[in-house]
Design brief:
With 178 residues, the protein is an alpha+beta fold. It is 42% helix and 14% strand. The longest helix has 51 residues.
């Protein structure tokens, strides 16, 4: 008696092929998730650079306030952390034909910047100071009156449920004057 030989895949071969296919699908999904995370981070970094450049331009335009000594310059005393809540509104919104003096314009510039940080960056923080780059802490500014004016902007990285939110770290540090 002659036995017929089966022509086809065995159960083991089929399971191995399905396992390899499943690994490929899981790898592709992980790549997509990682790509989406990196795309979101890049978008935040791009927006941070634009905001820092915008604030730097506003500071340069308001030369009267920038000429004040460091202790009296409202721009150099700016340190806003969104974890503390929404920013306080300025006394006057300096748009269009509003009658604003240089101090009012500076107050509005800082409010508008803080409002954007609060709304656009998760747990965002922004600081403007003189920094020569020798500070040991991320948010600490080291530099005397001759050091360049920098804008430091950062945000808290997203965390999984149950994890403590880390402190905001500056992702963008841009020299805007000096």
């Amino acid at each position: 008696m002659q036995r017929s030989r089966s022509l086809g895949f065995t159960l083991i071969e089929t399971l191995v092929a399905m396992f390899i296919l499943a690994l490929g699908v899981v790898g592709a999904a992980a790549t997509q998730v990682s790509s989406a995370r990196l795309r979101a981070q890049a978008a935040l970094e791009s927006e941070a650079v634009q905001l820092a450049a915008s604030l730097g331009a506003r500071m340069r335009v308001n030369a009267h306030q920038m000429a004040l000594p460091d202790g009296a310059n409202p721009y150099l005393n700016f340190d806003y952390d969104a974890a503390g809540g929404e920013p306080a509104a300025p006394p006057l919104h300096c748009f269009g034909s509003a009658d604003c003096d240089p101090a009012g314009i500076a107050a509005f510039d800082l409010y508008d910047t803080a409002r954007i940080v609060h709304g656009a960056f998760p747990g965002g923080r922004i600081a403007v100071c003189r920094d020569d780059g020798s500070a040991t802490s991320d948010w600490t500014c080291a530099g005397g009156s001759g050091a360049p004016v920098v804008v430091k902007l950062g945000w808290r990285a997203p965390v999984r449920a149950g994890e403590a939110a880390p402190e905001a770290k500056p992702f963008v540090t841009m020299v805007v004057a000096g």
